[in-house]
Specification:
The protein is mainly beta. The protein has a domain at 15-92 and 125-135: THUMP fold (2-Layer Sandwich). The chain has one helix and six strands; from the N terminus they run E-H-E-E-E-E-E. It has one helix spanning 54-70, and strands at 44-51, 74-75, 82-101, 105-107, 110-112, 116-135. The strands form two sheets. The chain has a four-stranded mixed beta sheet. Strands 4-5 form a two-stranded antiparallel ribbon. Strand 1, helix 1 (54-70) and strand 2 form a beta-alpha-beta unit. The protein is elongated, with a radius of gyration of 23 Å.
Length: 139
């Protein structure tokens, strides 16, 4: 029996990982799992690992640990009923912002000219995080 939980995050992580990404504002979350899975038989879990660097690894693992313990699951060093893995990456994309100085239309001496538009590219970090939870015995 397999249980997969896949979550994709674009800007921040609500609920499950809110404490790890409080600095961000929105999220795109998708979840998929085996609907025939008997979640009542899982009581312990162990980590396969979290592919993240530095503080993010600790924050991700702490947030997942917090949510699973709230569901009654107990973390064990190895051999848990379920295994948890987290893989994350981030990329940079440009966000375009346009500012207008002036307004086309009426001016001081009649018809005013067109305003000037300035567009600026602002770099923005975007990340995806996938958290997999699967049956340790059947993988």
């Amino acid at each position: 029996m397999e249980v997969f939980v896949k979550m994709r995050y674009q800007v921040a992580l609500p609920a499950l990982l809110a404490c790890a990404f409080l600095a961000f504002a929105a999220a795109d979350v998708s979840v998929d799992y085996n609907h025939q899975a008997d979640f009542g038989r899982y009581h312990t879990y162990s980590w396969l690992g979290a592919n993240a660097s530095g503080l993010w690894k600790d924050r991700i693992m702490a947030a997942v640990d917090s949510q699973l313990s709230a569901k009654g699951w107990q973390k064990v060093p190895s051999g848990g009923d379920a295994t948890v893995s987290a893989v994350g990456y981030s990329t940079e994309r440009d966000k375009m912002e346009t500012f207008y100085d002036g307004f086309p239309g009426w001016g001081w001496r009649g018809w005013g000219g067109m305003g000037v538009a300035t567009t600026t590219a602002i770099p923005e970090r975007v990340g995806d995080l996938t958290v997999d939870v699967f049956d340790s015995g059947t993988k």
